[in-house]
Amino acid sequence: MNMSTTRSAAAVVTGIGVVAPTGVGTEEHWRSVLAGKSGIGRITGFDPSGYPVRLAGEVPGFVGKGRIPNRVLPQTDRWTHMALAAANEALEDAGVDLASLPEYEIAVVTSSSSGGTAFGQEEMERLYRNDPSWVSAYQSIAWFYAATTGQLSIAKGARGPCGVVCAEQAGGLDAAAQARGMLRTGTRLVITGGTDASLCPYGLVAQMSTGMLSRAEDQQRAYIPFDEDAAGYVPGEGGAILITETAESAAERGLGDGYGVLLGHAAGFASNIQDGTRVLTAVIERALDDAGVAAADVDAVFADAMGTAEFDRAESAAIAAVFGPCGVPVTAPKTLAGRLYGGGAPLDVATALLSMREGVVPHTVGPSRIPAAYGVDLVLDRPRPVDLENVLVLARGHGGFTSALVLSRSR
User: What Pfam families does the annotation carry (predicted)?
Assistant: First the structure.
């Protein structure tokens, strides 16, 4: 491994935009994380009383009107509205004028899991209650997994390589890795990250098919990964958008290493739960090797935290295999928002970057009874001050997708 080559090719994160249950706006989200303020509550977008799952992480008070162009509103779903709003914040945060950059050197790659389920449900209802003439022409694109990437490309004049990664929760890390690859091959700036918004009856029923959603009605104990009483996860909506640039581009604008760099990545696929520990262990090791970082130099792990006994055991075993039992602080701030699917990993990356900025590992709200056999040093009760130079973010998606991303404060 040529460490100097790896570090020189790292992608610099210069802007962050957040639309999440923990807050609309990066700093609001960060304040919620530090305070342990949960965004999980009873579903309000529709009456959930007839469903076994009644809690979710909804983005409080978010509407697209006033945040994105009016003409785009009827053409797109809520998940795209969220991504456009987050991208606007991220670009403003990065202080970049896209008009000053060559359009073919601006790219977009996002993650998506559900697509525009709410938009699709509304149009199907119009079809069945009326006739085909009532169905919007935009149904053909608004539901599509790549709709957000396309709308971002159009809105921001990004005519470089564009794409979408569909790997459920793991897709956000894989999209960041694709962004890093694009920056290595001639692209100057990549808009990446992702959002999801499937908290409608159709979307919720689809998620319930996994059998992994928490049916608890106690907000404080509904999503408690690594706890001996863990019984599933809470679904959520929203996510984060990141602006990534080449080191040269960031340096030209006087931003240095920005919030941090995307230093290493690896992905794998676990065909069954029995393979989970082995695959995740190998993915972590390959991500560290790609970054040129030793396990001893990782200062914190942002866990995937599925919230079921089998998956929690597999993840804790993989972390212990690489770092030793209780060898590194582990956290899962996603318990405040729920699992956001295509938006979940980007939000974890954003939170990890903010943690490096502030030198603190956020605590995990909810779990309280951690089996000693797990061997994880889960940060509980309050944030833990730690000088963070390198952080590992983990993500797994339904069906076996597995991904790991190494972030560093500097190249």
Answer: ketoacyl-synt, Ketoacyl-synt_C
